[in-house]
Design a protein that fits this description.
Blueprint (H helix, E strand, L loop, with lengths): L1 H21 L4 H4 L6 E9 L1 E11 L4 E10 L2 E8 L3 E5 L2 E7 L11 E11 L2 E11 L2 H8 L31 E4 L2 E4 L4 E2 L2 E4 L18 H10 L4 E7 H8 L21 H14 L3 E8 L19 H14 L6 E5 L25 H15 L4 E5 L3 E3 L15 E3 L19 H4 L2 E4 L19 H18 L6 E2 L8 H17 L2 E4 L22 H8 L10 E2 L11 E2 L1 H5 L31 H14 L6 H31 L1
Parallel strand pairs: 12-13, 12-21, 13-14, 14-15, 15-16, 16-19, 20-21, 22-23
Antiparallel strand pairs: 1-2, 2-7, 3-6, 3-8, 4-7, 5-6, 9-10, 10-11, 17-18
Helix pairs in contact: 1-15, 5-7, 7-8
Length: 655
């Protein structure tokens, strides 16, 4: 009996060892956490403020992520997206986000910090750290993707869809021109009175400011405030990325814009067009820069050392073909502000030459590419910076700046008198709209501001000869693509004169700008991109298209402009017969015969059950240490049992 008790004790000890090893800690909890990191995606500064966009990684599992960023200059206030709090210490901002806070989506995502101050010229990351351990519930919440509706797609897109309802009729809102007027297809004169919202050119791959606001609500607010046209600065590089199936991440506040989660940046752009259509807003695509860069507009030409003219043409071809029958996009601004002085190595010219930097030749090629795809699109053409005082003796051959009339970038359209744009036919030329940009002394102290100025002096010294003559002689319509600024001192005086000019000549215009982060002009909204600067808005409102009783007039024949506007049909009393543009023959699609790609058709409900079962099974996954312990315990138990059985057999034999 004593031996049997020894055997039983040994078996009990072995069982205890086996049980301890079997109660293994799940592998996911034992995994060593990665080091939190922040990769800088973009830095955008404008003297009185700046922002830095970051991609966080290695954050899962921590309770709190802390990012410290240093800005040059003086920081007065800080905000952003993807963080719970922002603390200022001198020119350093410390931002934190918690795994169980409202911005937990910022873990391993796109986040940003924005500051207001002075002398802001750069920003850099000082440190990134993770602390604490997130609970299982917090970790799940931080990494759980938003629910989306998906469908199969053949162009590499995610297939995420958001339904936007609209009464719009496709193809009834195209525009053309007659003399200095822009007309609808019935011949009704219209007035394009809009604003700019940039960001698709800066690296945000979306409008700037959606990091702080609800995208759909902001677009609806623009319509409600009476802007019937939205000029959208974009980079040609981004358009080619989309064409090639590359979708740079869009920068937005996920908490405010959860309906965008699951969409790639091209799908979000399509969503923008749908929302504009539903609110009666028309869109003008502006090729603001060749490369995606917040400072890309500083490059003087439509091509750069790493982005060719051929790629520029290709980008315009792609977007105009893709949206050839989407009359939400009614116009294309071919290139923002071609510029450069004669003394500078790179500068735009306008003549009848074949020179690479001849903007007239490039604009004619670009315009015809668009009109091949969509003969009903307006082609908006900006000027350059210089024009020879005596074109007969100096056809852009002199490098002496004194031999030229100077102007704002893109603001010199004197060349139209000598070398008008020609697309090859009267029908195509009827789609031409010329577009100068004009600013006040707060942006730059131009010679025509020296010693004081009046409405008459601006007319005599600059406006008429530089571009207003085009409207006055009924050569073509004008659209002031950019004007605006801070409402103080001489700059406010200039703004009042410009508003007077726009009203008297009924000039089409897009105010610069909606953005709060335009350093040398300010915006129509404050830093939250939601609250309107009422003083500036009321100033601009006087030159928005509206009836005598103040009802805004839209450019869509079926959809009223926002909640405070009417349709073009309500204004004119005439509907329009829709027009469909001819489409290209589909390109041949190469197919593989040796491989077949299978698409899952699993029912979502079944998939959810499967995922839940898989998650439950994962509870019993063993860590590497537990697996080793389990193996050793098993061997030990087998040895003890074997020894016990052998002892029992011996005793039985002896008996």
């Amino acid at each position: 009996m004593k031996d049997l008790r020894k055997i039983a004790s040994a078996l009990l000890v072995a069982a205890m060892v086996f049980t301890a090893a079997a109660i293994a800690v799940p592998e996911s909890i034992r995994t060593v956490r990665a080091e939190a990191q922040a990769d800088v995606e973009n830095v955008n500064t404008w003297d009185s403020g700046g922002q830095i966009t970051l991609n966080l990684s290695g954050c899962s599992g921590y309770q709190t992520i802390t990012v410290v960023v240093q800005f040059t200059g003086t920081v007065n206030s800080a905000s952003g997206w993807g963080f719970d709090s922002y603390t200022i210490d001198g020119n350093t901002v410390t931002a934190t986000v918690s795994a169980d806070g409202p911005n937990s989506w910022g873990f391993d995502g796109n986040v940003g910090i924005q500051v207001d101050g002075s002398g802001i010229t750069n920003a850099s990351v000082v440190s990134v750290s993770g602390s604490g351990t997130a609970s299982a519930q917090s970790t799940t919440a931080a990494t759980q993707p938003a629910a989306t509706t998906t469908a199969s797609s053949s162009d590499g897109s995610s297939g995420t869809t958001v339904t936007i309802t609209s009464d719009a009729v496709e193809g009834d809102d195209w525009l053309t021109t007659d003399g200095d007027k822009i007309l609808d297809m019935n011949g009704t004169e219209v007035w394009l009175t809009g604003c700019n919202w940039f960001g698709y050119n800066t690296g945000s791959n979306l409008f700037d400011g959606v990091w702080a606001c609800d995208l759909d609500a902001a677009l609806a607010s623009i319509a409600d405030h009476g802007f019937n046209l939205l000029r959208v600065p974009m980079s040609a590089e981004l358009l080619l990325q989309w064409k090639n199936g590359e979708y740079p991440e869009a920068n937005y506040n996920h908490a405010y814009n959860a309906y965008l989660d699951g969409m790639n940046s091209l799908e979000i752009w399509d969503h923008v067009l749908d929302v504009c259509e539903a609110n009666g807003i028309k869109v003008m695509v502006d090729i603001h820069s060749a490369n995606t860069d917040a400072m890309g507009h500083m490059a003087p030409l439509w091509y750069t050392s790493d982005f060719s003219e051929e790629e520029y043409f290709e980008a315009l071809d792609w977007i105009s073909e893709r949206y050839a029958n989407n009359d939400t996009i009614v116009a294309y601004d071919l290139k923002n502000e071609p510029h450069g002085k004669a003394s500078e190595a790179e500068h735009a010219i306008w003549n009848d030459s074949d020179d690479d930097n001849n903007w007239k030749a490039a604009a004619e090629t670009a315009g015809n590419i668009i009109l091949d795809n969509n003969p009903n699109a307006l082609i908006v053409i900006e000027g350059i910076q210089i024009y020879p005082i005596d074109p007969q003796t100096n056809n852009f051959t002199s490098t002496n700046d004194e031999d030229y009339y100077n102007s704002w970038w893109g603001g010199n359209l004197r060349a139209v008198a000598d070398y008008p744009i020609d697309f090859g036919s009267p029908e195509r030329n009827a789609q031409i709209v010329y577009s100068p940009h004009d600013y006040g002394p707060a942006v730059y102290a131009q010679p025509w501001f020296e010693g004081g100025f009046t409405y008459e002096s601006l007319m005599d010294d600059y406006w008429y000869d530089a571009w207003l003559y085009i409207d006055a002689t009924e050569t073509a319509p004008l659209l002031i693509g950019e004007w605006g600024g801070f409402m103080t001192g001489d700059n406010l005086t200039w703004m009042e004169y410009m508003r007077q000019l726009i009203g008297e000549y009924h000039l089409n215009h897009t105010f610069w700008c909606f953005n709060a982060n335009s350093g040398d002009t300010g915006g129509l909204v404050l830093d939250d991109f939601t609250t309107w600067d009422e003083e500036k808005y009321e100033f601009v409102r006087e030159v928005l298209w509206q009836t005598e009783d103040g009802t805004f007039i839209g450019l869509d024949h079926a959809v009223p402009l926002g909640s405070n506007g009417i349709t073009l049909t309500e204004y004119s009393g005439m509907a329009v017969t829709p027009v469909t543009n001819p489409t290209r023959a589909p390109e041949a699609i190469e197919t593989q015969t040796d491989e077949t790609e299978l698409t899952s058709t699993t029912d979502p409900a079944v998939q959810n059950v499967t995922d839940e079962a898989e998650e439950n099974r994962s509870i019993f996954k063993l860590s590497p240490l537990a697996k080793v312990s389990f193996t050793i315990a098993g061997i030990a138990l087998a040895a003890v049992i074997g020894w016990g059985l052998w002892t029992i057999v011996k005793k039985v034999k002896k008996q």
